[in-house]
Amino acid sequence: MPDRLIQPPDPAQPIPLYRQLYNNLRAAILTGRLKHGTRLPSTRELSESLNVSRNTVLNAFEQLLAEGYLESAPASGTFVAMTLPETPSQPAPRSGRVEKPRWSAIARALTAAPAMHVGDPARKDAGHPRAFRVGLPALDAFPATLWARLVARRARHSDARGLDYQATAGYRPLREAIAAHVTVSRQVRCTADQVVIVSGSQGALDLVARLLVDPGDPVWMEDPGYLGARGALVSAGAQIVPVPVDAEGLRVDVGRKRCPEARLAYLTPSHQFPLGVTLSLTRRLELLAWARSAGAYLVEDDYDSEYRFHGRPLAALQGLDDSGRVIYVGTFSKTLFPALRLGYLILPPALIDTFLAARAFVDGHTAALEQGALTDFIVGGHFGRHLRRMRGLYAERRATLLRALDGLPLEPFAADTGMHCIGWLPSGADDAGVARAAAAHDVDVTPLSRFSLTAHARPGLLLGYAGVDPAGIRAGARRLALALKG
Amino acid sequence: MPDRLIQPPDPAQPIPLYRQLYNNLRAAILTGRLKHGTRLPSTRELSESLNVSRNTVLNAFEQLLAEGYLESAPASGTFVAMTLPETPSQPAPRSGRVEKPRWSAIARALTAAPAMHVGDPARKDAGHPRAFRVGLPALDAFPATLWARLVARRARHSDARGLDYQATAGYRPLREAIAAHVTVSRQVRCTADQVVIVSGSQGALDLVARLLVDPGDPVWMEDPGYLGARGALVSAGAQIVPVPVDAEGLRVDVGRKRCPEARLAYLTPSHQFPLGVTLSLTRRLELLAWARSAGAYLVEDDYDSEYRFHGRPLAALQGLDDSGRVIYVGTFSKTLFPALRLGYLILPPALIDTFLAARAFVDGHTAALEQGALTDFIVGGHFGRHLRRMRGLYAERRATLLRALDGLPLEPFAADTGMHCIGWLPSGADDAGVARAAAAHDVDVTPLSRFSLTAHARPGLLLGYAGVDPAGIRAGARRLALALKG
Questions:
Q1: Whole-structure pTM value
Q2: What's the ipTM?
């Protein structure tokens, strides 16, 4: 009588009784407590011995029969299936003795790369942003109520077609709105066909790297440079060629000397990340000439160029390109908010078809609802208005930060654009150590050395000012002063 | 007097006058009409000759000075910059003479792979779904009003923290809700820590392939099998080992013979795609034993298992795994709607950290808003209710389809689960040809041969029934009958 081998269901548990019985029977079979070919008691007998209804037993049996754990023979009853060719060995403990996974080269490269946003940066900030996190826009000044209204309207009016799979390239009206915006405000030359909506600028960089870089291909990268781009390039197996940055931006001459045959160059021309310099026109033209002759692509990451405080934003490199060598990357993480995960690529026409065909296998497309809301935000004029407001706000916060840093042993460099400034440390200083000391004082500064591809970088700190209000900036600067005193 | 070289701004255009002047001056410089070192007329002179205000000229100059197109010398005026080392050659026409891009091996492999959803499937359907598209849920029966309410509420209550970058693994309460759901309904054994929210099942498969497969690594794939998985594996450079499928699912014995050392096996155990068979318990145990001994991973794509019409859904393979070899892939594309782009991975504990570290470089994380709404949908009991309703609806639609196919020269096979059935054609028939004929009659059937990895597959058609109402199913069957008559 195997019924003692079967644990009775517990009516106090939230799981239906038949399901508990199913689980218990299955466990008994899998662990070998109920052997192959064992005849089970009748449903009536089991219902009595386990103190459950006969229906409960019938339901559990039906499921186990369907899954092949049990077999029934007409007129002779129900048996543990004979066709299990091997009983699983004693279940290993779920944790211990797990073999070390064999990771791909990509996985190994990515985990060796300096991390960016692993974990939960917002949680670290315990609800309000800490001074001086880099890359954080003024979320307190985002028109969240308006945004919620636009989202709600789109959600209400979504029909079956809006719920279905969408175009791989993104929502057509959004692509048109982006094309119109970058044409006017960034002097980009494109049509909506060239715009592909992706998951933030990271989704764009990842796609570009995978489709244009083979393992071992050399790629120019600004040194110091953006870790997200570096990760995407490394994950494609790129051999990173560090190219130094001076006051005019990327040293094209050095790149040409080190590796004239690079496949790609990653650039932040409007506001170099992290140094903040602008790529000069001379260098832009040099770069375009090199890209043409080398058949290389220039990836222009225009992450925060909308925030220029004097004059108009600088024109994009893409607008100077007449040979289809520039891939423009934009994001709404800095202009709206990061959790939106909407960015875009503007592709040279010759690249469009292959990018779309390949992208279908990467993540299908980007979710539809917020693409619709974003379209309404841009077309309704809210985007332009928000950018203008933020420009004013960030200019103020930048000025507040520079005043607050006065007297600190830092040499500030604050470009006329962007969302962060640099505080240079005396040469020989350990900027990572300073950042750790600042963290102990609850200040989030990012050491410049983190972005270096080569050993000898001038030490300095990145100080984000856009996401923190003036009181927070002043308080942060006071705590930073304490940290710098040691 | 170079001012004749400068096109005057046109007040009829929607672009501000200073911006037009800026564009025109820049174009004149870049095309060499204004040579290096040329002295420009004074702002007063230009304002008169171009018939614009002096402020307009000043604004344009300011911008061109900032960008390095112009230089100013105190007391002597404004000049075209001398520091342009090379004038760009005559701008090539934007279209013609573009060099053929050099694509990565990944890009070449992906564009050679059979396409899935390139383009816009919803648009093809012109607003209402065509019978018998595969993989389409009943969007007409989705509780869109309730969903809109949940989304709107989340949007209204989103604070600065909700707008910020989010955890790479996804929204914690959603991970908990998913863990609870799959534990009860799919017998998956996991904690919320093992759940990672990604962009649909495609995002999951892509991530798995990249992190666990190196170029040239052999991977078992069901033959015939799912094109999305094949694309993700191919893009990681996998060497696909086709393993045939019979009435009990994957022929594990054949896989072991062909390639015992495969790194990974891709599987749809609950309802094999496209054939619809269920992987038997025997095979499941064989597979787990092989994976343990080979150190391989089993990727369980549980894409539509919630729809089983008799008895309870079959337990997931993952629940039988005691050695951390099964990676479970789930999606809400079939249970809610595809445009949501939310799917999830359930990882063996040993894989979690590396997946999260690497994923930060792929797309950061998944957008926050709809993760919140989905959490409310599940926790509020709406998800369970919707699944139950859809189970009834799809069972009806399946029965309608089978009745409507009666008399057609097709041998139907409709598994007791899922969203589509198979119509077998006489051996030797050209299923792709039949599908083309059906398309000419406005019926969307998918030829089985499309999913074959090897040449000799039995010809048949996939007929999706979930997304089409009974009238549409009957009309589709009538049109299909015409197409089959030729």
A1: 0.83
A2: 0.82
